[in-house]
């Protein structure tokens, strides 16, 4: 199923854990170079959806394609950067050692990753903490390091699950600036969020509620189509209820 315009395609994806259905006929298309937001409250199925996109989990039924290949696909590992909600870091190792370990997994050459590690740590304002044990990092620093690890190998697809939780507003702006720059270079970015101002920063948005996509479009379209003044009002009026519940 080669597709010239869409980088990620989900076609009627369902997911069950035992008898509990957590995704119900989820279909969406993410164009190449797009920053695509998945907006919804905790527990609505966002994390399950992105894990299927990243090839970490498999759908019960339906099909998922990334970069024209059916997922899950081991050969795509080096093309996808994935940042989970919980930080997958080795606490006794330094940030540099964590990054070197993942660089080796991605098959990066030493002369390349040494330079790239300095770049991503600078980008995340962590240069001064490169050799500090990760166990001594604050929660926000760990999130920034996790993002540095997700972009370390210059992936073609970047999947970020609540990437800026616990990160201060100024640094959040810097991170979004970098995401836009990556997008302009052709990187396709999928971001899950329940934060309204972040939802507005996405090129396109899908609203999710209880495992169902309730609306899709640009943030402007989603507000205009239902006569809402804000994206939060739009979410409520599409049937999403309050984001906090």
Helix content: 25-40%
Uncertain stretches:
none
CATH C-level of the domain at 6-84 and 155-240: Alpha Beta
> CATH superfamily name of the domain at 6-84 and 155-240?
P-loop containing nucleotide triphosphate hydrolases
Number of helices: 8
* First-to-last CA distance: 38 Å
Shape: globular
The biggest beta sheet is recorded as: 6 strands, mixed
- The CATH topology annotation of the domain at 6-84 and 155-240 reads as Rossmann fold
Strands of the largest sheet, in order across it?
Answer: 6-7-8-3-9-10
The overall pLDDT average reads 93
- Radius of gyration, Cα only, in angstroms? 18 Å
From the coordinates shown, what is the CATH architecture of the domain at 6-84 and 155-240?
3-Layer(aba) Sandwich
| % residues in beta strands | 25-35%
The tally of strands reads: 10
Order of helices and strands: EEEHEEEHHHEHEHEEHH
Structural class: alpha/beta
Features:
Rossmann fold; about 240 residues; alpha/beta
Q: Could you explain the architecture of this structure?
A:
It contains 8 helices and 10 strands. A hairpin with a 2-residue loop joins strand 9 and strand 10. With 245 residues, the chain is α/β, with parallel strands linked by helices. The protein has helices at residues 46-54, 95-105, 110-123, 139-151, 169-184, 196-201, 219-226, 231-240; strands spanning 6-17, 20-31, 35-39, 61-66, 69-70, 80-83, 157-161, 188-193, 204-209, 212-217. Helix 2 (95-105) crosses helix 3 and helix 3 (110-123) crosses helix 4 (139-151). The model has no long low-confidence stretch (mean pLDDT 93). The strands form 2 sheets. It has a 6-stranded mixed beta sheet with strand order 6-7-8-3-9-10, sandwiched between helices. Strands 2-1-4-5 form a 4-stranded antiparallel beta sheet, covered by helices on one side. It has a domain at 6-84 and 155-240: Rossmann fold (3-Layer(aba) Sandwich).
